[in-house]
Design brief:
heterodimer, A: mainly alpha, 10 helices, globular, B: alpha+beta, two-stranded parallel sheet, 4 helices, 18 strands, extended, disordered C terminus
Chain lengths: 190, 257
């Protein structure tokens, strides 16, 4: 999954992006839109809101493109700003609670069979993630949904690289406890 | 199975669950992601790139000649250098607009009513967002004194021990986001995390959503109404702080790391 975010934008493309070249800007968006949207969906639990926030983050990047020195800074910048934007949404209460977003058999579009099972699993996981402390939720969603490598995680969350793995381990343990305390057996979810 | 030795064995199923859920999310959202990309590309090609955000206006810096070179070089930051403690030996006067500021330990900062400050401390571990009409003094590492006005303090991490002194008492950082306003009295509002207010020998911990008043004619700490959301300008400054590039200003690292 890390391959999503390991590949950096070509320095030449980055220089054109800084100058305001539309093609280069499209390449930057193409490169980062999937991990950014995946992070925001997992964090906010709302696909529409995630797209609104992602658009806001990319437009902000365009506005501040002159502050970046090179392509290596893009991921940390984007996810740092995305985290702040997501926090604002959560504080304003505009994000949908996972309970309200639970998949159902009825409704449109119809969700059936394995797909429903997958949606339910995702919903259970979102609910458990939502109950974690903010930092731990951010750490896990950035790592597993956005696929950020350790280096970018450290840069984005402002923590030493050496402590990132340990904190991921602790956050996973807490997530496991949250899942189990809400009556879900891991074996049933896997 | 995880190949990271720091992931406890009992957490490996959780990691597997996360990876599976992420893969499913990518699969079901791939169509929406593609539509999002098309919309963004259309917008980027149809609308000219927005102008870059304006560089903040310069401060009218009144510094001793020895400190002037540093002020010219640096865009932002209190510099908490060991050995620079002591009374104010410099005065920085802020004018209207958002300011990214260079301040040395022992210096005083005053802004006019329209001024807005961003100070990044400790490599970004602490961000201070100052409102208009602020008057504060950098006492030393991890400690400032607010004599007038309002600041918002955002602690990202690793800044335990940071404290704001006011005429009525001291606010020590336990958690993350809070404001301190000083007028006749001192008002503390905690948005996230917690702070410890030390007043007249007693200590009170204020958690998220709480506020308190002390100083002036009041005795001790008076609990205030529920702390509301930070004003919009705080979030705007927070975004600017997030966009600030430390490495561009300090290629070899923060001056206080």
């Amino acid at each position: 999954m890390d391959e999503q975010t390991r590949e950096e934008i070509d320095p030449g493309v980055f220089r054109r992006f800084r100058k305001g070249d539309a093609d280069a800007a499209c390449l930057v968006v193409e490169r980062y839109h999937r991990p950014l949207l995946a992070f925001l969906r997992a964090h906010l639990g709302d696909r529409d809101l995630a797209e609104d926030v992602a658009q806001e983050v990319f437009l902000r990047l365009l506005e501040h493109r002159h502050t970046l020195r090179g392509p290596r800074q893009l991921a940390s910048w984007l996810f740092t700003v995305a985290i702040r934007a997501a926090r604002r949404q959560l504080q304003r209460g505009e994000a949908t609670l996972p309970e309200e977003n639970a998949p159902r058999q009825t409704g449109s579009p119809p969700v059936q069979g394995d797909r429903l099972q997958e949606e339910r699993r995702l919903h259970v996981l979102h609910a458990a993630l939502a109950s974690l402390p903010e930092k731990e939720r951010e750490l896990l969603t950035l790592r597993y949904f956005a696929g950020l490598p350790i280096k970018d995680l450290a840069g984005t969350l402002g923590m030493p690289m050496g402590s990132v793995g340990v904190k991921i381990g602790r956050s996973l343990q807490r997530l496991r406890r949250e899942l189990e305390s809400s009556g879900h057996r891991l074996e049933d979810l896997l | 199975m995880s190949n990271d030795p720091r992931i406890p064995r009992e957490s490996e199923p959780v990691e597997e669950l996360l990876r599976a859920a992420a893969a499913h999310d990518r699969e079901v959202a791939s169509g929406r992601d593609a539509a999002f990309l098309r919309r963004m590309e259309r917008r980027l090609r149809e609308e000219p790139a927005p102008p870059v955000a304006k560089a903040p206006p310069r401060w009218n810096v009144l510094l001793p000649a020895g400190a002037l070179a540093a002020a010219v070089l640096v865009v932002a930051v209190f510099v908490f250098l060991p050995g620079r403690r002591g009374p104010a030996d410099g005065l920085l006067h802020g004018e209207g607009g958002v300011q990214l500021l260079a301040v040395n330990g022992g210096e005083r900062v005053v802004s006019d009513e329209e001024g807005r400050f961003i100070y990044l401390l400790g490599g970004g571990a602490v961000s201070l967002f100052g409102g208009g009409g602020s008057d504060l003094l950098v006492i030393g590492p991890g400690r400032i004194q607010l004599d007038r006005g309002e600041i918002w303090v955002h602690v990202v991490g690793g800044a335990q021990g940071f404290a704001v002194e006011t005429p009525g008492g001291t606010i020590a950082v336990v958690g993350t986001l809070f404001s301190v306003a000083v007028a006749d009295q001192t008002i503390v509002r905690v948005t996230r995390g917690a702070v410890e207010a030390r007043v007249e020998g007693s200590t009170t911990v204020l958690g998220a959503g709480q506020s308190a008043t002390f100083g002036g004619d009041a005795v001790g700490i008076q609990e205030g109404p529920a702390a509301g959301e930070p004003p919009r300008w705080v979030w705007e400054l927070a975004d600017r702080a997030a966009a600030f590039d430390w490495r561009e200003t300090y290629p070899s690292g923060s001056p206080h790391q």
